[in-house]
Amino acid sequence: MKRFSNQLILAAVAMSLAVVPAALAETVKIGAILAVTGPASFLGGPEARTLEMLTDEANAAGGINGNKIEMIIKDSGASPEKAISFAKQLIEEDKVVAVIGPSTYGESMSVKKIFDDAGTPLVSCAAAEAIVNPVAKYVFKTPQKDSYAVEKIFQTMKEMGITKIAVLAGNTGFGKGGKEQLLKIAPTMGIEVVETEVYDKGANDLSAVIAKIKANKDVQAVVNWSIVPAQAIVAKNMRQAGWDVPLFQSHGFGNIKYVEAGGAASEGIIFPAGRLLVASELPADHPQKAVLSKYIADFEGKYKEQASTFGGHAYDAFIILKEAIGKGGTDKDKVRDEIEKIKGMPGTGGIFSFSAEDHNGLDIESFEMITVKDGKFVPYKGK
């Protein structure tokens, strides 16, 4: 009987030892600061849903190096003040390995120094070039550069024979950054900006602004650099004024909901964007085809909404961090170093290749010129 009892004790000890590794398995904490609600929810909503989906998929497949991912999403509502508070909380209290987001330029710039000083990697989902120029050691971003978007727009204009334009911009950080790039690059590409207007981001009628620039008979095309609702309002007011010059939007136009908001006035809008919006048009051997097709199918199948480039920015941030953490572990300095080592990684926004000098990792070829036809996004083929 005593021998049997000893065998039971030994078996119990063996079983307890067997489960110790699992019990001690490390949880990989990744934070996210996203505008899930509020005026920029068209950005943060798809981003948050994408991260939730990818986290579930990764954990079902064993996490990162056998460790489960804990994704801690904070809803900033697009408020820089909230972003600052959440940044400190994620770094100091939650002790995350890295953070994805914020969704907007203003938030990203407000927390840039916080993350750099703390030595915690941040992969922003906002587009403005100032987020990574000048380079901050621990700050990266996934959307394509403003300057490349501007160059693609001007290349298309030159093909169309357009040389004189009007520039409209919302009074946001994104609008300010885009306007600066437009004015800076235009002279280098033979484009003359003959009218410039900045309007309030909350405006619901820009007919006076449109009337003013329409009065200048030299204007051959309009570039509008803004976020909603102005993207649809500019298009509607131009149509109401009977003005049919080409309207170009920024790479922030990549959500079909903007087209729906503009209705018939959206037809013919031209803008640069990543290839997610025209993934079905890509050849089977395109390096982004498999990534884009899977993301679109997974996201739309799960959430019953059309995938947008904004959710794609979060997708790219996730796979970049997953790769870096997989190689660098949870040491934040090593994770940062591994991001800079990433070369030739297909994402939704392009093929990422980072370096110490380039914390965006994308070139101008990551953009495709797109237009709206019959209420849908299609590749722009020229006229």
Written account of the structure:
- The longest helix is centred in the N-terminal third of the chain and has 22 residues, at 2-23.
- α5 packs across α6 (173-185) and α11 crosses α12.
- It contains 12 helices and 14 strands.
- The strands form 4 sheets. It has a 5-stranded parallel beta sheet, with helices on both faces. Strands 7-6-8-9 form a 4-stranded parallel beta sheet, sandwiched between helices. A 3-stranded antiparallel beta sheet has the order 10-13-14.
- The protein has 2 domains: 28-144 and 288-352, Response regulator (Rossmann fold), CATH 3.40.50; 147-273 and 368-379, Response regulator (Rossmann fold, 3-Layer(aba) Sandwich), CATH 3.40.50.2300.
- With 383 residues, it is an alpha/beta fold.
- The protein starts with a helix and ends with a strand.
- The model is unreliable at 1-24 (pLDDT under 50).
Q: What is the name of the CATH topology of the largest domain?
A: Rossmann fold
CATH A-level architecture of the largest domain: 3-Layer(aba) Sandwich
Number of domains as seen in the coordinates: 2
* Overall 3D form: globular
Rg calculated over all Cα atoms: 24 Å
CATH superfamily of the largest domain: Response regulator
Strand order of the largest sheet: 2-1-3-4-5
- The proportion of strand residues reads 15-25%
What number is the mean pLDDT? 92
